[in-house]
Amino acid sequence: MPVADSGTASTFAASRDISSPRTPSMPTRDIPYRAASPRAVNWSGESPDEGKCPVRPSSLSPNGARRPPERRDGSTRRSASAVVFCLALGARVATAQLPAAAPSKPEVQTRESQAAMTPSQALDRLKAGNARFVANATRRRDWSAKVVATAAGQFPFAAVLSCMDSRAPVEIVFDQGIGDVFAVRVGGNVVNDDELGSLEYAVKVGAKLIVVLGHTSCGAVKGAIDGVQLGNLTGLLAKIHPAVEAAHCSDSKDAGCVTKVAEENVRQSVRAIRERSPYVAKYLDDGTVALVGGMYDVATGRVTFLDH
Questions:
Q1: I need a labelling partner for 101 at 20 to 30 A (CA). Which of 17, 113, 204, 273 fits?
Q2: Is it true that domain 111-305 has CATH number 3.40.1050.10?
Q3: Residue-wise pLDDT tens digits, 24-55
């Protein structure tokens, strides 16, 4: 083969740098990128130009000579990390620049919604709420927002006279929120002047439904069946004695007997409200307000409304 002269060979060697590996990596260019924050830093620890993303260092040194293989390999690893960093930064910037959604206004009873509701709609709302409670599908509520939303006033659609039993919290078993119902609670859900006054106030301010709610396994009913004597409790239990007599049973250890007396006690409380409060009776007669009784089952969570 013909041999090139030394001058040509030297020029060729300088242009190719035959001491470098056979497949050099290709040089890269800066990639334009809109960064939200000029404080992002590249992997060298220096602040990049605004609008630039940290990029893979070139395999060529500033004077055009190729870097040693170990330097180039290290740069390749750093460049992959730089690309991941760039993509993550872009995602964060895009998220940060999205307008914040306005908080939803909590649903609360208003004067208008209270006025528009009928007694039958109020009863249906309680039935639907109890069905959600039994199905363990109660509504999620922002209680703090409801506190703020109801601070200026309340417009409950119903009033519930119930027992004080800790297993029968009215708002929970009917899945209602703050400001939705009046809850009047007393042992044995008995009716006296104080409870009547509370119910009359509820009607006055717009409630469309009154519910007397008894429950199974009621301690007050058991005490009335057994004739318990205990301070001021004695007088309260005396108000349940007529229901014990009407139920014709006397065994407080018989769950069926206790439930029968409790149901009869609810019916007697319903009658007492109508008979002892002419103010409430007027609204009952013209259909503006409804009055119903119900029984809560402490074993299932279900409310059954009674026929009168």
A1: 113
A2: yes
A3: 444 444 444 444 444 444 444 444 444 445 54
What are all long-range contacts of 13-19, with beta carbons under 8 Å and residues at least 24 apart?
A: 17/65, 17/66
134 contacts 302 by C-beta, under 8 angstroms: yes
Distance between CA atoms of residues 85 and 284, nearest Å: 71
Where do the H-state alpha helices sit in 104-169?
A: 111-116, 119-134, 143-150
**Element spanning 296, H or E:** strand 290-296
Confidence of residue 106 (pLDDT cuts 50, 70, 90): confident
Closest CA to 240 of 256, 260, 255, 211: 260
Q: Which amino acid is at 293?
A: G
Predicted confidence (pLDDT) at residue 168 exceeds the cutoff of 50: yes
Q: CATH 3.40.1050.10 spans which residues of the chain?
A: 111-305
- Is 182:233 a contact under the CB 8 Å cutoff? no
Q: How far is the CA of 268 from the CAs of 4, 19, 244, 247, in angstroms? A: 123, 107, 11, 11
For 215-254, where are the alpha helices, taking DSSP H only?
219-226, 233-238, 241-247
C-alpha 39, offset from chain centre: 39
**Cβ-Cβ contacts under 8 Å for 233 (sequence gap 6 or more):** 187, 223
- At position 124, the amino acid (one-letter code) is D
pLDDT, one tens digit per residue, over 222-236 is 999 999 999 999 999
Place of tokens 């509701």: 117
pLDDT tens across 183-226, in order?
999 999 999 999 999 999 999 999 999 999 999 999 999 999 99
Q: How far apart are CA 16 and CA 238, in angstroms?
A: 112
Q: Is 210 helix (H, G, I), strand (E, B) or coil?
A: strand
Residue 29: partners with Cβ closer than 8 Å, 6 or more residues away: 55
